[in-house]
Structure formats: structure tokens, C-alpha cells
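Please go through this protein, sequence plus C-alpha cells, and consider how the sequence yields the C-alpha cells. Keep your notes short.
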Amino acid sequence: MRDGRGQIRRRAGLRLWLSGGWLALVLFGAVFAPWVAPQDPLMQDLFTSRLPPFWMEGAEPGYWLGTDNLGRDVLSRILHGARIALIVAVSAGAATCLIGATLGLIAGYFRGMADIVISRLVDIWMAFPPVLFAILLIAVLGTGLTSIIVAIVVIDWTRFARVVRAEAMNQGAMDYVASAQVAGYSRLRTMLVEILPNVLPTIGALLTLEMGISVIVEAILSFVNLSIPTDDPTWGGMIAEGRQAIHQSWWVLVFPLVTLFLTVLSFSQLGEGLKDRFDPVLR
């Protein structure tokens, strides 16, 4: 039994190091993009268009990952695009977590009419196709970071509500909750002091997963030109541009696509690693 728990903790530690290391690198690049980016991400120069990465023949110094068909530096655009991706991930993830987890806790612990109302609202909300719902909201609200964040929150709060509700129900049936009520704790205090700490590992895993989903949603909207209305680089926009020139300059598509994939995967693995590491049941 101890060997099993130790193996879980070792795997969790490895996931935490790998995913946390990549996300720290992305965060560093996003925060310090104006200083670490080798070129201006918006500067166009047709004389340097479609330069290959540094290890290929024909590369030029200063363009480490090559350039696109307009001569813009791919690495610089990836670094500046990380700023938009992380802003959406953190803002939308935090707001979605706050709303959905709060409603899930209330429904799962208090039950009764609160559970009925919240559960029916979740069922109605989930009847709408999420991607089409997001596009519809963006069409109504207009393009921009705020609209993207609002659309993600409006769509994805149900994920937190459903999972946290089920977890709160399980925790509410535990003996320690009955002991707290016998000790004179109010129901609100029991929920916040006793149940919430034991649900936090699940909430943390959902939060990091939601951040990864937010990055994907922003990339999808950028891909179909429904993201920010300015010329600022986004990973989805770079993927859309690179798809059109995949046979002439594959690096324009591959590098932002790999960055997007690793970032989303790291968010997911970070949540699972944190849950395995700090889950009270496993401890």
C-alpha cells in the first residue's frame, strides 16, 4: 500500500516538475516578451520572408525559428502571443472557478431547492453546443479579450458546478461533517471550514484544466478571426497563417502549434499532479 502511494507521489512529482517547468518558461516569455523577443513581432520585411530556423541552410542570425511570408519573426510572435493566451487562461479560469465552484458547493451541501434550481440550470446550459454558443456570444458582444473571457465563463462554469457538486455530496456524507454539526458548527461554517478544504484538490485540478481549455478556445477563435481585432500576434492566428503556407514554410505552422499543444498539456498535467500530491485521501 505504501509502495503504491509512493509511486503515485513520484509520478505526481515528475508531472509537476515537467509541466510546471514548461509553464514557468511560457510565463517568463510572456511577461518579458518586449525585452527577450529578438525582433519586433509586427515588423514586416519582404527581404527576410520565409527564412528557415537557425539549424537549416539559408537561416540568418537573429531569426531563431525563422520568419513567415511577411518576414515577421516567428519566435517573437510566439512570445507576444503567449501574453494573450495567459491573460485569457488566468482571467477566464479564475472567474469560471469562482462562479461554478461556489454554485457546486451550495448545491452539493445544502441540497434541497438550491440543488434542484442549480442542477436544472446546469442541464439547460449544457444543452447548447459550446463552440457554437461561444461564436454566438462573440458575435453579440464583439471581438476582444473581454468578450472572449466572458464567453468562456458563460459557457464553462457548468463544468465546475457539476464536479464540485458531486464531490461536495460525497464529503457531506462523511463522519467528520456529522461531528462538526454535533459540535455546533453552522451549515455555512461546516461547508467553508470542513468541506471546502477537502474539495480544494479537485477544484485545483479543474482550474488548471480550465486554463488549458481557455487557451484552446482563444486559439480557435483566433483561427477563425474572432479574437482580438488588432494586429497583435496570437497562437491561433499564427496557426491559421501557417496552414496556408505549410508546403513553403512549415515552421510558421509547426512551432506555434507545438507551443499550444505543450501549454495545454502542461496545464492538464499540472492539475493532475497537484491533485495527486495534495489530495487528503492519498495523504
Observations:
- The domain at 2-34+70-278 is CATH 1.10.3720.10 (MetI-like fold).
- The chain has one domain: 2-34+70-278.
- The CA atoms of residues 239 and 254 lie 8 Å apart.
